[in-house]
Amino acid sequence: MINKTFSSSKQRNWQNEAMAGGKYLLDSNNHIHGYYKAADILVNSALDSHINRDRDMLFFPIVFNYRHYIELSLKNLIEKSEDCYDALEQTGSNYGSLKSRFKNNLNHHLKPLLNHLTERLLLIGEVGFEESICETILDIHKLDPESITFRYPIKKKGDLTLPEQESYDLKNIQERMKIVKNSFEGATIELQVKTDLALEWLSIQQEQISEFETELPKYDFENNCY
To answer: So which domain of life are we looking at (predicted)?
Structure first.
């Protein structure tokens, strides 16, 4: 049961409400793309503002949301690529050996996640991401390897998370992230199609085997004859 902070005591208005939890958590797209959309909305709001301080304040939540979108997307794609590998392996296809399974733990490092995904994509016969996509992901990783930089101004040891004062182009970040998003969505579709085709092939093979077994003459073990 939700508390007073999350629920109005006044008459309910569905236009003010958001649905979350339960079966809605099973749709990973809503969860993942929410961070991307939040970042996009913030960029548009910042660019529409004529106050420089607004853009400065929104920079951190903007990049944090974009970064978290990348992290969740990479983890999701790794899981989908392993599902695809499993389906292809059942068909008898020889795509090499998957050395270890990915464990979706609290690892926030984008570079290892990208490497994990690329390894699996190549293993199932898919090409990796274009250089520009990897460059954007790694650029964000360099600034924020542990998912701390865009959440806190100071690290645990007292160092500044961004020691150098610089200017960051919000519009350019948004445009590059749009390309990343399109690439992620394309990879998701390709993996799903490949998985579905493999499972469909397996289903057809199983049906044919069942039909063949049904048509075989039954052997009478008691009388030692068909």
So the answer is: Bacteria
| Residue 157: Cβ within 10 Å count | 5
Instruction: Name residues whose C-beta falls within 8 Å of residue 194's C-beta, 6 or more positions apart in sequence.
Output: 84, 87, 88, 124, 126
DSSP designation for 41: H
Q: How many CB atoms lie within 10 A of CB 212?
A: 9
Tell me if 34 sits within 8 A of 111, measured CB to CB: no
Total Cβ atoms within 10 A of residue 74:
21
Which contiguous run of DSSP H or E holds residue 197?
Answer: helix 170-215
State the sign of the Cα–Cα–Cα–Cα dihedral 174, 177, 183, 188: negative
Contact 170, 43 (CB under 8 A): yes
What is the C-alpha to C-alpha distance for residues 208 and 43, in angstroms, rounded to an integer? 55
Range with the poorest average pLDDT among 23-32, 45-54, 62-71: 23-32
Which pTM does this prediction carry? Answer: 0.85
Average pLDDT over the chain, rounded to whole? 86
pLDDT in tens, 14-23: 777 777 777 7
Q: Counting runs of H as helices and runs of E as strands, what totals does the chain give?
A: 5, 0
Beta bridge partners of 154: 160
Question: Residue 154: what are its φ and ψ, rounded to 5°?
Answer: -130, 140
Nearest of 188, 193, 172, 179 to residue 72 by alpha carbon: 188
